[in-house]
Amino acid sequence: MFSLMNQTNLLSEEHLSWIGHEDAPIEIEVSRRDIIKYSMATEQKLQKYLDGDEAPLMFIFNLFAQPVPMDQLRVDGLARGNQKGPSLPLKRVMAGGKEVEVFRPIKPGDKLIGVNRIKNIYEKLGKQGPLIFTEREFEVKDQTGLPVFTETETSIAR
Predict the structure, then answer these.
(1) CA proximity to 53, closest of 72, 75, 38
(2) Rounded Cα–Cα distance for residues 93 and 106 (Å)
(3) What pLDDT is attached to residue 31?
(4) Is 52 exposed, middle or buried (0-12, 13-18, 19+ CB in 10 A)?
Protein backbone atom coordinates (compact mmCIF):
# COMPACT_ATOMS: atom_id res chain seq x y z
CA MET A 1 0.00 0.00 0.00
CA PHE A 2 1.29 3.48 -0.85
CA SER A 3 2.05 5.63 2.17
CA LEU A 4 1.99 9.41 2.38
CA MET A 5 5.40 9.05 4.08
CA ASN A 6 6.81 8.23 0.62
CA GLN A 7 5.90 11.69 -0.68
CA THR A 8 8.40 14.52 -0.40
CA ASN A 9 6.50 17.32 -2.20
CA LEU A 10 9.58 18.66 -4.04
CA LEU A 11 8.01 18.55 -7.49
CA SER A 12 5.86 21.47 -8.56
CA GLU A 13 3.17 21.51 -11.24
CA GLU A 14 5.77 23.12 -13.51
CA HIS A 15 8.11 20.14 -13.02
CA LEU A 16 5.30 17.68 -13.72
CA SER A 17 4.22 19.62 -16.81
CA TRP A 18 7.41 18.33 -18.50
CA ILE A 19 6.00 14.79 -18.57
CA GLY A 20 5.37 13.97 -22.24
CA HIS A 21 7.72 16.71 -23.53
CA GLU A 22 9.48 15.64 -26.74
CA ASP A 23 12.71 16.95 -28.19
CA ALA A 24 12.93 17.54 -31.94
CA PRO A 25 13.37 14.30 -33.92
CA ILE A 26 16.91 13.29 -34.84
CA GLU A 27 17.48 11.60 -38.21
CA ILE A 28 20.44 9.48 -39.25
CA GLU A 29 21.27 7.12 -42.09
CA VAL A 30 23.23 3.96 -41.32
CA SER A 31 25.90 2.99 -43.82
CA ARG A 32 27.48 -0.39 -44.40
CA ARG A 33 30.82 1.29 -43.65
CA ASP A 34 29.56 2.44 -40.23
CA ILE A 35 28.56 -1.13 -39.36
CA ILE A 36 31.85 -2.61 -40.62
CA LYS A 37 33.95 -0.07 -38.71
CA TYR A 38 31.98 -0.66 -35.50
CA SER A 39 32.17 -4.45 -35.96
CA MET A 40 35.93 -4.38 -36.45
CA ALA A 41 36.49 -2.01 -33.52
CA THR A 42 34.45 -4.22 -31.20
CA GLU A 43 36.05 -7.45 -32.48
CA GLN A 44 32.83 -9.04 -33.70
CA LYS A 45 33.10 -12.67 -34.84
CA LEU A 46 29.96 -13.16 -36.93
CA GLN A 47 30.46 -12.62 -40.64
CA LYS A 48 27.12 -10.79 -41.08
CA TYR A 49 28.50 -8.04 -38.82
CA LEU A 50 31.98 -7.96 -40.36
CA ASP A 51 30.44 -7.73 -43.85
CA GLY A 52 28.15 -4.90 -42.68
CA ASP A 53 24.96 -6.80 -43.55
CA GLU A 54 23.54 -6.23 -40.06
CA ALA A 55 24.62 -4.17 -37.06
CA PRO A 56 25.55 -5.88 -33.78
CA LEU A 57 23.13 -5.17 -30.95
CA MET A 58 25.40 -2.76 -29.05
CA PHE A 59 25.68 -0.61 -32.21
CA ILE A 60 22.54 1.20 -31.05
CA PHE A 61 24.23 2.84 -28.07
CA ASN A 62 25.41 6.35 -28.97
CA LEU A 63 24.19 5.80 -32.53
CA PHE A 64 22.55 9.24 -32.44
CA ALA A 65 25.30 10.98 -30.44
CA GLN A 66 27.14 13.83 -32.11
CA PRO A 67 30.96 14.04 -31.85
CA VAL A 68 32.07 16.49 -29.16
CA PRO A 69 35.44 18.30 -29.06
CA MET A 70 37.72 17.16 -26.23
CA ASP A 71 37.63 20.56 -24.51
CA GLN A 72 33.84 20.31 -24.19
CA LEU A 73 33.83 17.00 -22.32
CA ARG A 74 33.12 16.74 -18.59
CA VAL A 75 35.97 15.84 -16.24
CA ASP A 76 34.84 12.19 -16.38
CA GLY A 77 35.32 12.17 -20.18
CA LEU A 78 31.62 12.03 -21.05
CA ALA A 79 29.77 14.55 -23.19
CA ARG A 80 27.60 17.03 -21.38
CA GLY A 81 23.92 16.24 -21.66
CA ASN A 82 21.93 18.36 -24.07
CA GLN A 83 18.51 17.01 -23.24
CA LYS A 84 15.84 19.47 -22.28
CA GLY A 85 14.01 19.17 -19.00
CA PRO A 86 13.06 20.93 -15.80
CA SER A 87 15.61 22.27 -13.35
CA LEU A 88 15.14 19.95 -10.40
CA PRO A 89 15.53 21.04 -6.76
CA LEU A 90 17.93 18.12 -6.12
CA LYS A 91 21.19 18.48 -8.07
CA ARG A 92 23.21 15.31 -7.51
CA VAL A 93 22.20 12.98 -10.34
CA MET A 94 23.06 9.31 -10.75
CA ALA A 95 22.09 6.59 -13.19
CA GLY A 96 19.05 4.59 -12.20
CA GLY A 97 18.99 2.00 -14.97
CA LYS A 98 18.44 1.45 -18.66
CA GLU A 99 16.07 -0.84 -20.50
CA VAL A 100 16.19 -1.51 -24.23
CA GLU A 101 13.53 -3.20 -26.32
CA VAL A 102 14.73 -4.19 -29.81
CA PHE A 103 12.13 -4.82 -32.51
CA ARG A 104 14.38 -5.60 -35.47
CA PRO A 105 18.04 -5.52 -36.52
CA ILE A 106 19.61 -2.40 -38.00
CA LYS A 107 20.67 -2.83 -41.63
CA PRO A 108 22.79 -0.70 -43.98
CA GLY A 109 20.75 1.99 -45.70
CA ASP A 110 18.30 2.30 -42.80
CA LYS A 111 17.10 5.85 -42.27
CA LEU A 112 16.29 6.09 -38.58
CA ILE A 113 14.35 8.74 -36.72
CA GLY A 114 14.78 9.01 -32.95
CA VAL A 115 12.57 10.99 -30.58
CA ASN A 116 13.54 11.60 -26.98
CA ARG A 117 10.72 12.28 -24.51
CA ILE A 118 10.27 12.63 -20.79
CA LYS A 119 8.12 9.65 -19.90
CA ASN A 120 7.70 10.31 -16.18
CA ILE A 121 8.95 12.36 -13.24
CA TYR A 122 8.17 11.27 -9.70
CA GLU A 123 9.59 11.42 -6.21
CA LYS A 124 10.15 9.03 -3.33
CA LEU A 125 11.61 9.24 0.12
CA GLY A 126 14.75 7.10 0.31
CA LYS A 127 16.69 5.90 3.36
CA GLN A 128 18.92 8.97 3.20
CA GLY A 129 16.36 11.53 2.06
CA PRO A 130 14.23 12.56 -0.89
CA LEU A 131 14.81 11.24 -4.42
CA ILE A 132 13.47 12.44 -7.76
CA PHE A 133 13.24 9.92 -10.60
CA THR A 134 13.18 11.03 -14.24
CA GLU A 135 12.36 8.45 -16.90
CA ARG A 136 13.32 9.34 -20.48
CA GLU A 137 12.27 7.27 -23.46
CA PHE A 138 14.18 7.31 -26.75
CA GLU A 139 11.99 5.80 -29.45
CA VAL A 140 13.58 4.93 -32.80
CA LYS A 141 11.60 4.12 -35.95
CA ASP A 142 12.66 3.49 -39.53
CA GLN A 143 11.75 5.56 -42.58
CA THR A 144 8.44 3.67 -42.91
CA GLY A 145 7.43 4.41 -39.30
CA LEU A 146 8.04 0.89 -38.01
CA PRO A 147 9.71 0.59 -34.58
CA VAL A 148 13.39 -0.39 -34.47
CA PHE A 149 14.18 -0.01 -30.77
CA THR A 150 13.10 1.84 -27.65
CA GLU A 151 15.51 2.79 -24.89
CA THR A 152 14.16 3.83 -21.48
CA GLU A 153 16.65 5.44 -19.11
CA THR A 154 16.04 6.41 -15.50
CA SER A 155 18.06 9.05 -13.65
CA ILE A 156 17.81 9.69 -9.92
CA ALA A 157 18.42 13.08 -8.36
CA ARG A 158 19.22 13.29 -4.65
Answers:
(1) 38
(2) 32
(3) 97
(4) buried
Going by C-alpha positions, the residue among 113, 108, 85 that lies closest to residue 21 is: 85
Nearest CA to 152 out of 107, 112, 93, 102 is that of 102
Tens digit of pLDDT for each residue in 110-158?
999 999 999 999 999 999 999 999 999 999 999 999 999 999 999 999 9
CA dist 136 and 152 (Å) reads 6
Residue 81's identity, in one-letter code, is: G
pLDDT of res. 2: 44
Dmax (CA) of the chain: 57
pLDDT digits (tens, 9 = 90+) for 39-69: 999 999 999 999 999 999 999 988 888 888 8
Q: What is the 3-state secondary structure (H, E, C) of 66-113?
A: CCCCHHHECCCCCECCCCCCCCCCCCCEEEEEEEEEECCCCCCCCEEE
Which residue type does 4 have?
Answer: L
Per-residue exposure over 119-152, b if at least 16 CB sit within 10 Å of its own CB, e if not: bebebeeeeeebbbebbbbbbbbbeeeeebbbbb
